[in-house]
Amino acid sequence: MQAKDLLQLADQFGSPLYVYDAEKIQSQYNRLTKAFSKVENLRVNYAMKALSNVAILQLLKNMGSGLDTVSIQEVLLGLHAGYEPERIFFTPNGVSLEEIEEVAAMGVQINIDNLSILEQFGTKHPHIPVCIRINPHVMAGGNANISVGHIDSKFGISVHQIPHILRIVENTKMSIVGIHMHTGSDILDIEVFLYAAEILFDTAKHFKDLQFLDFGSGFKVPYKKDDIETDIEELGKKLSKRFNAFCAEYGRDLTLIFEPGKFLVSEAGHFLVKVNVVKQTTSTVFAGVDSGFNHLIRPMLYGSSHHIENISNPKGKERFYSVVGYICETDTFANNRRIQEITEGDILSFRNAGAYCFSMSSNYNSRYKPAEVLWMNGQGILIRQAETFEDLLKNQIPLPQEIAATV
């Protein structure tokens, strides 16, 4: 997308505004499938928690993607977007047996990540095939909050508890059709990923009727110029060879599954904001914008970096700015960042705003959530309207008049 396209969309739909480039999503999907083209049976399940807009789900469905979901609400959204139940995986954490049973009744593939639920589900529903999520005890990921395969993680069943898993499977006679792992996000060292994959292969040998192995995802994307990213082509070459060899040892061609979220949509996203005020202090120049961590919380929550461009003045001389939001507490997008000279009314574009950005937004300070637009075939398509005051009131119930009058 060009800066002029983004400016036109900001003018047309207002700001703040999320924009997603359909072509970039498609190219990332094709890049992943090409990297693993030597695997006979490859399946990509989009991790929809990254960006769950129904239009995005439909776009990926048309490309052949399945879905990875973590809540019954995501399952319902996937079904609403037109996915067949068998194309949806349900990988929750810490949910009730009742929620898992309700999803299983829809025909969705269940992935269980703790011994208690595994035993309860297997006892009640031994004929419903399930996948087991293991914890390989491998530390991977760019932040403690997104590293989920280490020994202190709440996710998965420890590889050291495989004897317990086998005992439950034997006692309940339940059907195990897949083994799953996910080490964490922002993986840089593919050798760490391959090491964890070996643990998955070793675990799989204990189960004789598997149909697939799910390797999760967590591939890192570049957040700034010359940033490091996961070498997906090198990983594809090495893991494909090892996976095919394992299938030969196992005696059956299994399906290799990935569940990318950020990898598919992060770089496609642009978050557009307008500069309300440029404020010079004794030590800092603040650019205050018409948004805050209610719309984009990742910099405050994870310390994530989003490249910021002044698309209203792309050739301007760079100066140092701290870009801050309008939320009534510390609300910083970037500290002392080199950005083309900013004046009030300019439009700034935050890059890599496709994953875990809108999906983590809120109505904090009673602010409205912004609109979302899909840029496709040279035009902007509105895929979510900006909220209004009526949306804030929609589910609120005021006090009955007779009680309110006594307060």
UniProtKB/TrEMBL annotation:
Active site (catalytic residues): C328
Keyword match Amino-acid biosynthesis: yes
Residue ranges annotated for the Orn/DAP/Arg decarboxylase 2 N-terminal domain, each copy included: 23-266
Needed cofactors: pyridoxal 5'-phosphate
UniProt GO MF annotations: diaminopimelate decarboxylase activity; pyridoxal phosphate binding
Broad class of enzyme this protein falls into: lyase
SUPFAM superfamilies cross-referenced by the UniProt entry: Alanine racemase C-terminal domain-like (SSF50621), PLP-binding barrel (SSF51419)
Domain of life: Bacteria
GO biological process: lysine biosynthetic process via diaminopimelate
Its biological purpose: Specifically catalyzes the decarboxylation of meso-diaminopimelate (meso-DAP) to L-lysine.
Protein name (Swiss-Prot/TrEMBL): Diaminopimelate decarboxylase
